[in-house]
Design goal:
0% strand, MetI-like fold, elongated
């Protein structure tokens, strides 16, 4: 988000460099990047989190940069700048109230996407290792017992479903 505000506020060559960096990350397949980092540090949750974060930050950057460009040209921000207020005040008073609903909506969708990615990687035994509790790992460990106790495997699936559904419903909620 900070990079989006900087790129939208400053514009020029800095905006082009940060936009090119975002395009370079977007050109890499997200799953491949996550798998590469997990292969470097297998079983380490930080590698998994960093990999998923490197895939998901582009959405925040692009939305915040586009909205910041519009807000920086607004008369109220220009008036505050002419009155001598600093950049932190301008961000807190003018930019953040306008950016917050969009960023928080993206955060809820991003959290749901990250949870699904973690569960999918755990399901194919690439994610976290036992004894760490992880929904995809629980599903794969309960898969051999499906015929004897299908409700046992349904529990992590239901938890994943309810968690992702609740985050998506939270993201679709009107903030006012």
């Amino acid at each position: 988000m900070i990079l989006g505000v900087i790129a939208g506020w400053r514009g020029g060559w800095l905006d082009r460099v940060l936009g090119s960096m975002a395009d370079a990350f977007l050109a890499l397949p997200g799953l491949l990047l996550v798998l590469l980092l997990v292969a470097i540090a297998p079983g380490n949750f930080w590698a998994l989190y960093v990999g998923i974060s490197l895939v998901l930050w582009i959405e925040y950057f692009r939305v915040v940069r586009a909205r910041t460009r519009v807000l920086v040209a607004s008369p109220q921000l220009e008036a505050s700048r002419l009155l001598g207020f600093g950049p932190f005040y301008l961000f807190r008073r003018h930019l953040w109230p306008e950016l917050a609903p969009q960023v928080l909506t993206l955060a809820a969708f991003g959290a749901a996407s990250a949870i699904l990615a973690m569960a999918a990687l755990g399901f194919v035994s690439v994610g976290l290792r036992p004894p760490t509790a992880e929904l995809g790992l629980m599903m794969i460990e309960l898969l051999p017992y499906y015929h004897e106790a299908p409700w046992a495997m349904a529990q992590p699936i239901l938890v994943l479903f309810v968690l992702v559904l609740s985050l998506n419903l939270l993201a679709g909620r009107d903030p006012r």
